[in-house]
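Office hours follow-up: a student asked to see two folded examples consecutively, so here they are.
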Amino acid sequence: MFEKSFITDCEGPLTLNDNAFELCAYFIENGGELFKILSLYDDYLVDEVKKDNYKAGNTLKLILPFFVVENLKNEDLINFSQEHIYVVNDSKFLLKYLQNAMNTYIVSTSYGQYIEAVSNFMEFPFKNTYYTNVDMDELNLNDGEILKITEFKKQILENPKNYELFDDIFFNEIPKMGIYKNIKNIDVMGGEGKKLAIDDIIANDNIDINEILYIGDSITDVEPLRFAREHNGVSIAFNGNDYPLKEAQIAIVSPSAIATAVIANIYAKNDKKTVLSFINDYNNSDDVKKLFEDYKIDLQINEEFFRIFKNIKYPLIKIVDADNFDDILKESIEMRNRIRGEDVGGLG
């Protein structure tokens, strides 16, 4: 075991997917639009209503009855996930390096079927992952309920901002159905769930509470980023939207995970203070190659960084503050949408 732990979200920092959105778009007619509407509703319940016992990322529970209408089973999720993995450049390189540098974990809101597929693809130990555990084979609707869910879908698509209607559907009507007893017990790995995963990692690794690096990109990463920052760990928003940028101390905007590897390399061998010093020097240096030599960046990381950024501008790596927040957010959203597409990039 190492003295420090690197904990990363999956979709965003490692992969370009939004697996749940892609499942909806592929298997459900107008499913992509349905997912986007429910994702905004999910953000509303978390950010504005602050609904009790509701976690960011619960869209993954809200969408399940609509999957059942299409008769989706575990095998469907597994096969689709295996065939549709799109990675951030150099994320496999990053994970390979990390496994010899820090205790490394993936903590993701995504379904376990997708995370297992990604783990296999990345040659990363599945046992070092946390995810939303859903058994599609256990979820069933009777004929009458299928008709009701089909009608609910039509109503949602026709009334995309009628949140009173949504409240009635998801917190009154669906709880009357037999499927609800299974859905209510699903523990979505988002928001507070991710923070609890960090607690588990700290306890299992027997490390100091401040010896963690957490990196995320969306609303489901708010609580773990806040936890890392408040406990003097390293907190990073990678191509993040406004939610993680409000919580993270550090922002990375990059088409490649090699930028993350640079920060991870420095943190693995030094401490948070050295990471922050490097970032300040990086933004004031006219010779980044010499700066990498001064900070003794791993040779492979060094070579890969300058190979990727030979003919394009270096990635943004900055400490976030009130003065630069808007500029960073603009660049971050542009990169997010460019490499993940606007449909996925626009999700909370």
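And the second, which I mentioned at the end of office hours:
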Amino acid sequence: MRPLLIVNPRASGSRTGKAFAGLEAMARRALGPLDACSTERRDHAVELARAAAEEGRSLIVAVGGDGTLSEVVNGVLGSRRPETAVGFIAQGTGGDFPRSLAIGSDPTSCLEAIASGRERRVYVGLLTYLEADGGTGQRYFLNIVSAGMGGLVDRYIAATPAWLGGRLGYYIAALRAIWLCPEAQLRCRLTLDAGYEEHRLRARVVAVCNGGSFGSGMLMAPMAQVDDGVLELISVTQPTRLHMLVRSRTIYDGSHLRLRGVEHLRCRRVEVDVEDEAVRPRYPLDVDGEALGFLPMAAEVVPRALVLRA
């Protein structure tokens, strides 16, 4: 069957929808005959990708941001044909997963990689979390799950004018989140090859990282690799909000890891929860750049789960 392009027309401040005629023509030149459909609501790409995989398509291409790619991956891995290959034409505000994969983020580079036929098996994370209605949710993630400031940034970036651009918009949203996010006392249980460890951490943001960057280039875990089967747990706090503001730029080059108040732990599975119940609703989750639920969460590695055409 022909490849399917799943397009988020609202990605990149709705510029993707306006430019899609040109993108589709480029895709047809690179990939040959194909089909395309557009998402109409949140998680619509999950439904479209699941249906496309189960009807036998061998390649599904996400056209949009990291969130669109995440939805397509969840659709494919949640289908009866999880071996379906996934491609990505990056069109979003953040563009962090291409950084984690060290692949190009412009449409030409993306299409060249997809058309090459080269496939790689990458590890993904499987997240279990508290939904807003009190139920239990489950989600695959490619890149980074964070709690605290990261979840607040998602909410603030959604209200940021598109003309500010990705990096500046995320930086302004991050400054706002620094000022408003509480410092939480967290309980963490990490599963390792030889057993488990328990830690208590104070953090304004805690991140479970399969990939290295989020928030349009914030290099949270420069050591993270999507094919090593390890999750990197990074927690960050500072003595005051002013300290956080002053040192916020260090996250763009990874030098925050040398600061006091920053912890780095490695695991294959981790469970995280807040100790103070009052903090929970003010400490939301960010999953691959999208706002999604609250602590407690559990995250684990799923080995070589995704066939990525990149």
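Two things to take away from it. Residues 50 and 79 are 5 Å apart (CA to CA). The chain has a mean pLDDT of 89.
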